Structures are given as C-alpha cells and as structure tokens.
Amino acid sequence: MNVDLFDFELPTDRIALRPASPRDSARLLVLDGAETRDAIIRDLAQQLRPGDCLVFNDTRVIPAQLEGTRGEARIGATLHKREGPRRWRAFIRNAKRLRDGDAIDFGPNAVAIASDRADDGSFALDFQGDEPVELLLERCGRMPLPPYIASKRPTDERDAEDYQTMFAAEPGAVAAPTAALHFTPELMASLEAAGIGHTTLTLHVGAGTFLPVKAEDTEDHKMHAEWGRITPEVADRLNAVRAAGNRIVAVGTTSLRLLESAANADRVIEPFEGDTAIFITPGYRFKGVDGLVTNFHLPRSTLFMLVSALMGLDRMQAAYAHAIETGYRFYSYGDSSLLLPAR
C-alpha cells in the first residue's frame, strides 16, 4: 500500500511532552464497532465486559541512550537489541566518525568496541570489563525518550518514573509500552471489581519503533526484530478466555504484535520465545486479539498502519480527525483509545 494513504495533518502542539497527572485522568476515545464515544481512561471498566482479559507488556525500560567519545569525536548511541551478555546492537549518532574496531568511551569504566556495521547504519557494541552492563547503563545512560519529545525538551529525573509502567519487571526495553502508562493500582482495582482480568507477556521494545517509514510502499519497509516471550501458562489462560466466549484485549501495540506472532491459523495462542518482526497493515487477518488499548500515533507510522488494519483506514482517519479537533493529546505521553472492531 502507498504510505501516503496513512498521512494526516497533526499540529505539533498535540504531541504531549508530559503525561497526564494523575495517570488515569487521561482521555479515552472509544471506537466500539461503528460507535464512537469520548471517555476517561479511569472509566475503562465501563467500556469492557465481565470476562474480558487485558494483556500487558511487563518489559522495563533501561537507560539505553549513551554519550561518548572516540578520540576527539563525540559519539551518541541508542541501544536497541541485546545480542549477547555484553553485546548490544545500537543506532549511532555521528556514525561517519566510527569504524569497526574503534573503542568508544562512555564514561568511567564504560568502554565499548564497535563492530559489525549493518546496512541500516547500526553497530554492534561489545562492552568491556566484567561489570554487569545493566549497572553500567544505570550509571552512564539516560532514558531514551522518543525523538518527538526529546527534540523539544531534555530528559530529566521525572522521566525515570514517568516513562515506566506499573507492570515494568523485565529489563530490556529501550522504549516504553506506553499504552500501559495510564494504568494505576486504583484503575486495576476497578477493573478487577468489574470482573475484567489481566495477564502479562514480555516484549523488549526496540528503538526501531521510532524509525520513520521512508519507503513509498509498505511492502518495502523492513521492521526491526524484537525479542518476546509468552509462557505456556499465559497462553493457556488466554485460550481459556476465548473458549469461554470472552475477549482478549491487548494493552499496547507491543502486546498485540507478540500475541499475533504467537497465534496460529485456528486463533489459538501458542507459547512463544524468540524474535518477531511482524508488520501489520490493512488486509491482515487478526488471530490473537479482539481489541486494543493504545495511544494516538504519528502520521505515516507503522503503528497508525496497525490500528488502521484493526479498525479500517477510513474509520481511523475519521477518528483521528475527531481527536485532533477535540484536543486529544498524541504519542507516548498522550491520551488513549480503546479499539473494539465489530465481530
């Protein structure tokens, strides 16, 4: 499909620079079949049915942005996928000053050797020494805010908390599963009281999620692989939800993409552990989910393509026009939507 089909005018002031406070006060646009409703995320239980099951991503964002030097040259690195105990694949700023075998000094006792430059310009970084890389990043790294936020303000101490979900448990992501940022213990209690269940999976979100689609046709866009896991216990529970006639609702496109990667042609979710590079565009037949909670995405992005596949392109263009006109806030720290396609 032509990527221009997924374009729309988004005023820059609609991109949120801070999350709603409290988190569950964010607005919620509900697309329920052909019906459209304006709501608040703390009232999510009223928009779902008893027996529905929400699926959260329990990945934890690591401070994956590093600033260093190679000789006199300043080098920036954004880690995006672990390739070994001490090796990470990284996008590099000022990559023209870097060659295979060069050492980058990221700070006290934080040196990495660059190698294996890929076609997308990324390098493998092998961190030297025996200190756990996680401790090195806590000391030298910073939270990797999306470029649409980071270009407008610096990362600060608030982001260390704001950019983690309440489910964050498994370190490894370099971007937050932002749909879950709206959830609070109070909201979860209201969902439980309404008979709405939840479970978790793990998908370590990579920096490739921020990359623009530069191709003119979706067929020519390549997704970066991300590692994920669905345990047998979680797969069994979700299949039982479906068997009882209830719905699986992914919280975030990361949860949705992993569920779709794990679902077979009979709509059975199988245990999964490994990489996925699934790219969902209109025409895709969904097998793993019956609905989605997600934030508002940017024009021409793979994520707007995904929600258009779920609800229909015309439906999403109209919904986004309504969201822009009525002041919804977009992107990682923005408002939320609940997408429930007609069955």
UniProtKB/TrEMBL annotation:
<keyword id="KW-0413">Isomerase</keyword>
<comment type="similarity">
    <text>Belongs to the QueA family.</text>
</comment>
<dbReference type="GO" id="GO:0051075">
    <property type="term" value="F:S-adenosylmethionine:tRNA ribosyltransferase-isomerase activity"/>
</dbReference>
<dbReference type="InterPro" id="IPR003699">
    <property type="entry name" value="QueA"/>
</dbReference>
<dbReference type="InterPro" id="IPR036100">
    <property type="entry name" value="QueA_sf"/>
</dbReference>
<dbReference type="InterPro" id="IPR042119">
    <property type="entry name" value="QueA_dom2"/>
</dbReference>
<keyword id="KW-0949">S-adenosyl-L-methionine</keyword>
<keyword id="KW-0671">Queuosine biosynthesis</keyword>
<comment type="pathway">
    <text>tRNA modification; tRNA-queuosine biosynthesis.</text>
</comment>
<dbReference type="GO" id="GO:0005737">
    <property type="term" value="C:cytoplasm"/>
</dbReference>
<keyword id="KW-0808">Transferase</keyword>
<keyword id="KW-0963">Cytoplasm</keyword>
<comment type="subunit">
    <text>Monomer.</text>
</comment>
<protein>
    <recommendedName>
        <fullName>S-adenosylmethionine:tRNA ribosyltransferase-isomerase</fullName>
        <ecNumber>2.4.99.17</ecNumber>
    </recommendedName>
</protein>
<comment type="function">
    <text>Transfers and isomerizes the ribose moiety from AdoMet to the 7-aminomethyl group of 7-deazaguanine (preQ1-tRNA) to give epoxyqueuosine (oQ-tRNA).</text>
</comment>
<dbReference type="GO" id="GO:0008616">
    <property type="term" value="P:tRNA queuosine(34) biosynthetic process"/>
</dbReference>
<dbReference type="InterPro" id="IPR042118">
    <property type="entry name" value="QueA_dom1"/>
</dbReference>
<dbReference type="Pfam" id="PF02547">
    <property type="entry name" value="Queuosine_synth"/>
</dbReference>
